[in-house]
Amino acid sequence: MPCCRLLIVLLLALTAKSGQAVALQIDSRDTALNEYLVVGTVVWAHAGSSSIAIRGSSLLGYLRVRVRSYRVKQPSALVDLRPGDAITAVFSRRDGMLHRLRRVRSFGTSNPGIKRDSQ
Q: Which of 19, 26, 71, 111 is the 20 to 30 Å CA partner of 50?
């Protein structure tokens, strides 16, 4: 009988330890999903309200036509953006805003270093 009690105590201890490990593993996954990359094309940008609408891109660029609007942490990043500009940013679920907004390509140019002629 003492062997059975010892075996039961060991099983209970092992199941309690494995339950804690699973809980810690779930917590680490939640923190990893708090930010994600946003890639797309600008539909409109308004620096006064710190907001932007972005058409998401997919593998071929035209399969997803979903447009989402976001609030931007730094409204000064929206000043030079125009509809059609390709951008990347990081969306944070902590504050619900876009961070590190960058223009990848300007509308109408294949190279971001080339400026458009104003004719």
A: 111
Kindly state the helix (H) or strand (E) to which residue 15 belongs, with its residue range. Answer: helix 2-32
Domain 35-105 part of CATH 3.10.20.740? no
pLDDT digits (tens, 9 = 90+) for 66-101: 889 999 999 999 999 999 999 999 999 999 999 999
CA pair distance 20, 107, nearest whole angstrom: 52
Chain centroid, CA 63 distance in Å: 20
What is d(CA 52, CA 69) in angstroms, rounded to the nearest whole number?
5
Give the residue extent of every domain in the chain.
1-33, 35-105
Q: Which residues contact 20 (CB under 8 A, 6 or more apart)?
A: none
Q: What is the pLDDT of residues 3-53, one digit of tens each?
A: 666 667 666 666 554 444 444 444 445 555 799 899 999 999 999 999 999
Q: Is residue 46 within 8 Å of 52, Cβ to Cβ?
A: yes
